[in-house]
From TrEMBL:
Transmembrane residue ranges: 12-35
Organism: Methanoregula formicica (strain DSM 22288 / NBRC 105244 / SMSP)
Protein name: Archaeal flagellin-like protein
Taxonomy of the source species: Archaea, Methanobacteriati, Methanobacteriota, Stenosarchaea group, Methanomicrobia
Highest taxon of source: Archaea
Keyword Membrane: yes
Alphabetic keyword roster: Membrane, Transmembrane, Transmembrane helix
């Protein structure tokens, strides 16, 4: 029994239509990522794909890891980081250090270059700017160290806080905080990530290293 050539033409036309629709969908997805200004970076370690790109753009929530530590308002050097305070006062807290990471299970990432940091005390507010590491001149903040929680892994060189990574933050405001003084540090990531608020109180005695909890 011979097949009608017209049936073959219809089958080929249907297959071509499916291929055309698939190509259009893939092209639209690529165009969406490209126009958003967040095309994949070949140097980063975060997984690719449209869903991953969306999470990478928006980021996830950030949290503190461990305790927050305070130091007197004096110039110091810790490792490769040199802290220079303009107004030296050993009787006030002037430098704060803490570590942040994403929540466990989060799959996004946070661009630390676009995080806004706010220092507030006694209803006074100060925007703390990010500065490159090595030298921290107050008032500023910087990423003073990087870690990776996964065995055998290290944090990469970029400024994206990704799953499994921990960034140590060191910051200092313009003026110090005396004993029993209260202050709040707020980190505002870009996108849909919730801000991280860190309220603390200076202890009764200003010591070289103070565990603020």
């Amino acid at each position: 029994m011979m097949q009608d050539p017209r049936d073959t033409e219809k089958a080929v036309t249907g297959l071509e239509l499916i291929i055309l629709v698939s190509v259009l969908v893939a092209g639209a997805a690529f165009l969406l990522v490209f126009l958003s200004g967040c095309a994949p970076d070949p140097l980063r370690t975060f997984p690719g794909g449209l869903v991953a790109e969306s999470a990478y753009i928006s980021g996830d929530n950030v949290q503190t890891v461990g305790n927050v530590y305070g130091f007197p308002m004096t110039s110091r050097t810790k490792g490769l980081l040199r802290v220079i305070t303009v107004k030296e006062d050993p009787m006030q807290l002037g430098v704060v250090r803490f570590t942040v990471s994403l929540f466990i299970g989060d799959t996004g990432a946070i661009d630390m270059d676009k995080v806004r940091v706010l220092w507030s005390r006694n209803n006074e507010f100060e925007i703390i700017r990010k500065t490159p590491p090595t030298v921290l001149i107050c008032p500023n903040w910087t990423i003073s160290n990087k870690y990776n929680m996964l065995p055998g892994r290290i944090a990469d060189a970029d400024e994206w806080l990704e799953p499994g990574e921990q960034f140590e933050i060191t910051l200092c405001p313009t003026t110090g905080t005396p004993s029993y003084g209260q202050f709040t540090i707020t980190l505002w990531p870009e996108g849909v990530a919730a801000p991280l608020t860190i309220p603390r109180m200076t202890p009764a005695r200003i010591q070289p290293v103070m565990n603020l909890g």
